Amino acid sequence: MAHPPSVDRLARSLRTHSLPDPLLVEAARTAIAEAVLAHGPTGVDPAAVTARAEELIAEQSRRLLQPVINATGVLLHTNLGRAPFSLHHDASYSNVEFRLDQGTRGSRSEHAGTLLARACGAEAALVVNNNAAAVLLTLAAIGGPGRAAVASRGELVEIGGGFRIPDVMTASGTELIEVGTTNRTRRADYERAIATAGERIGLLLKVHQSNYRITGFTETVEVSELVGLGQPVVADIGSGLLDASCPWLADGPPAWLAGEPAARQTLAEGADLVLFSGDKLLGGPQAGIIAGRADLVALIGKHPLYRAVRCGGLVLRAVQDLALAYLDRRGADIPFWHMATGTVAELAVRARTIAGAVPGAHPEAMLAVPGGGTLPGVTIESFGLVLDGDHRDALRQHHPPVIARVQDDRTMCDLRTVAHSDDVGLAAALAGLGTAR
Ligand SMILES: *Cc1c(COP(=O)(O)O)cnc(C)c1O
Question: Model pTM?
Answer without folding.
Answer: 0.94
